[in-house]
Design a protein that fits this description.
The protein is of the alpha/beta class and 472 residues long. It is built from 14 helices and 23 strands. The longest helix is centred in the C-terminal third of the chain and has 19 residues. It starts with 7 loop residues before the first strand and ends with a helix. Bound molecules: nicotinamide-adenine-dinucleotide.
């Protein structure tokens, strides 16, 4: 791509923290879409393994494990105003990085609000303290009162991230199908009113990953298509969901928060042990894991109308994730080990032989029933579009690149979430890397095909109750 076609000219230093599955997939996209020299990029990670793609690209590297004691000493001298901290690591506190980046006048983006190592599995903390709700509230509390601090983009990968734009596009598509306008609302309240007027009650991030590696999972091994650490951490956090205003059966194992947005509740059990019924166009009806993700809270918060404790309107929002088959087996084994991690990890990428990541949002309860909108990206498409990627990593990397470009173009926007960014511009940037982007209506409901072999406790008056989705 010639310099003239690049999205932005960047003259500072971009410090990428972590160079795992997502970092390796993101680097070529950054160098493709942003006009900068490879030497402007510095990658920091704890070991000198897995750096071939960095050396090939000609970027700088620093082998150091960041922790609470050395963060300032390592990073502060390397950050000038206008530089960029791109956090694609596990085990490095997002809050500490945001605070330091802002102090140095640097921009920031992450794909997950991470605590320091061990934070997710600290049994001395209450379940409420181990939620993404708590991490999000702490990150939002760093917002500057004047609102013009250096831009820090929270949680900008595929999900959280891209799915916020899918939700907005899906709302417009449903409105158009109902004879309404194609014009996008201009405010948060406008989007919430649109969702309310269409009757959207439930939003799933409905994902089916069908990628398969040449070597199947072995005993004592956790296999996944992205970070094993990241997935085990979020899978063992309490399950969390944005709690809709239409819900009339509060879960017996559910708890509310007493402060903050009040948009979400948590269940007193791990997400990896919480399954829900969902639907994607290629896989059809299936069960996914209700693993906590910040978008479940942020999208529900964004679409709330009225008093946060007693909203007039809020959809129920949660993840319904069917990871690749070997990850399902890995979760099953992990549960048998009472959530003590297997000794070996394997992230599938170059050895994937087939499969698709079908990642989208499923909006339900409106006049047409259900509408799935999202990306279907095959492993072959992903490899053809960008080196060092699987279908899963490329959906994330595209959104990271788009978020970095937006932050560079909008450097004084303070702390923002994906819902605050322009959905059409972000979709335009990501679109070339998403494979087939499709919208499909369905008459599926969580009551479809139920209650025939055994009697089930269902709410037949309202299919869209969480009670009907949950697998008990
Ligand atoms: P990974 O495990 O493959 O890589 C993590 C990287 O962090 C590795 O390079 C590791 O060496 C590095 N790291 C670990 N400890 C460190 C330390 N103390 N200092 C510096 N670096 C350290 O993970 P991944 O799949 O690349 O995921 C990275 C992040 O992206 C995670 O937070 C994950 O949850 C998130 N993620 C988000 C999305 C999304 O769609 N929003 C999707 C996938 C992953």
């Amino acid at each position: 791509m010639g310099e003239a076609h690049k999205e932005h000219v960047f003259n500072g230093r971009l410090v990428m923290i972590g160079f795992g599955c997502i970092g390796q997939g993101t680097l070529p996209l950054l160098l493709r879409h942003i006009a900068m020299r490879p030497e402007q990029v510095l990658i920091i990670k704890p070991h000198d393994s897995d750096l071939e793609a960095a050396h090939q690209a000609g970027v700088q590297t620093l082998v150091t494990a960041l922790d609470a004691d050395n963060l300032r000493q390592v990073l502060a001298p390397r950050l000038e105003p206008g530089d960029f901290v791109l956090n694609l690591s596990v085990d490095v506190s997002s809050l500490a990085l945001i605070a330091l980046a802002r102090e140095r006048g640097a921009l920031y983006l992450d794909t997950c609000i991470e605590p320091w190592a061990g934070g997710y599995l600290d049994a001395s903390l209450t379940p409420a303290q181990r939620t993404n709700y708590a991490l999000r509230e702490a990150a939002l509390a760093l917002r500057s009162p004047s609102g013009d601090a250096p831009t820090a983009v929270l949680t900008h990968g595929a999900n959280p991230g891209l799915v916020s734009y899918f939700v907005k596009q899906a709302l417009i598509d449903i409105a158009v199908a109902a004879g309404g306008e194609r014009r996008a609302p201009r405010s948060r309240e406008g989007w919430a009113r649109l969702a309310q007027s269409l009757g959207v009650r439930v939003i799933h991030v409905a994902e089916r990953d069908s990628q398969v590696g040449a070597q199947r999972k072995r005993a004592g091994e956790f296999v996944n298509t992205w970070s094993v650490e990241g997935f085990v951490d979020e899978g063992t956090q309490p399950a969390e969901l944005g709690w809709g205003s239409h819900e009339r059966h509060f879960p017996t194992d559910g708890s509310r928060h007493s402060e903050g947005s009040l948009a979400a509740i948590y269940l007193n059990r791990p997400g990896a042990a919480t399954r829900v019924r969902t639907w994607t166009p290629l896989a059809g009806a299936q069960q996914g894991f209700l693993v906590t993700h910040t978008e479940s809270i942020a999208i529900a918060d964004y679409l709330t109308l009225g008093d946060r404790a007693r909203p007039h309107y809020r959809p129920t929002v949660h993840y319904a994730y069917h990871p690749c088959d070997d990850a399902v087996l890995s979760l099953h084994e992990l549960a048998g080990r009472n959530w003590r991690k297997q000794s070996r990890n394997r992230v599938l990428k170059d050895d994937i032989v087939s499969g698709i990541d079908e990642l989208g949002v499923l909006l339900m309860g409106h006049a047409r029933g259900a509408y799935w909108y999202g990306s279907r990206l095959s492993i072959e498409q992903a490899r053809g579009l960008c080196p060092h990627n699987s279908a899963t990593s490329l959906q994330v990397a595209a959104a990271v690149m788009a978020g970095v470009v937006w932050a560079m173009k909008n450097p004084t926007r303070d702390i923002v979430e994906p819902d605050d960014l322009p959905h059409d511009e972000m979709l335009r940037l990501c679109r070339p890397y998403l494979g087939d982007v499709v919208g499909v209506f369905s008459d599926w409901t969580p009551l479809s095909g139920r209650d025939w072999l055994f009697t089930e406790d269902l709410d037949r008056d309202d299919p869209w109750q969480f009670k009907n989705f949950r697998v008990t």
